[in-house]
TrEMBL record:
<comment type="similarity">
    <text>Belongs to the RdRP family.</text>
</comment>
<protein>
    <recommendedName>
        <fullName>RNA-dependent RNA polymerase</fullName>
        <ecNumber>2.7.7.48</ecNumber>
    </recommendedName>
</protein>
<dbReference type="InterPro" id="IPR007855">
    <property type="entry name" value="RDRP"/>
</dbReference>
<comment type="function">
    <text>Probably involved in the RNA silencing pathway and required for the generation of small interfering RNAs (siRNAs).</text>
</comment>
<dbReference type="GO" id="GO:0003723">
    <property type="term" value="F:RNA binding"/>
</dbReference>
<keyword id="KW-0808">Transferase</keyword>
<dbReference type="GO" id="GO:0031047">
    <property type="term" value="P:regulatory ncRNA-mediated gene silencing"/>
</dbReference>
<keyword id="KW-0548">Nucleotidyltransferase</keyword>
<dbReference type="Pfam" id="PF05183">
    <property type="entry name" value="RdRP"/>
</dbReference>
<dbReference type="InterPro" id="IPR057596">
    <property type="entry name" value="RDRP_core"/>
</dbReference>
<keyword id="KW-0696">RNA-directed RNA polymerase</keyword>
<keyword id="KW-0694">RNA-binding</keyword>
<keyword id="KW-0943">RNA-mediated gene silencing</keyword>
<dbReference type="GO" id="GO:0003968">
    <property type="term" value="F:RNA-directed RNA polymerase activity"/>
</dbReference>
<feature type="domain" description="RDRP core">
    <location>
        <begin position="2"/>
        <end position="64"/>
    </location>
</feature>
Amino acid sequence: MKAMSEPCLGLARLFSIAIDFPKTAVPAEIPSHLRVEEYPDFMEKPGKTTYESKDVIGKLFREVKDIAPHTSSIRLFTKEMARRSYNPDLEVDGFVDYID
């Protein structure tokens, strides 16, 4: 499905309705024919039906997935990690006013 296909344009219209929900109280209801049934392989959705993406992103994904480190991409960002990666040279005058 490409960006200018009718299903994608329909989803874009629903997205616009969803964004306006706080003002209009009109919910964006996604019809079943627009719901995703399978995902491209590069999304790595465990437990979901996938297909081999033929687009560039799918080809790149398959080229690098076996050479990239097999570590979890999700890590907790701890205070210790923040402290180690903090660079005071990037501070801007008055930044303290915006810290909670």
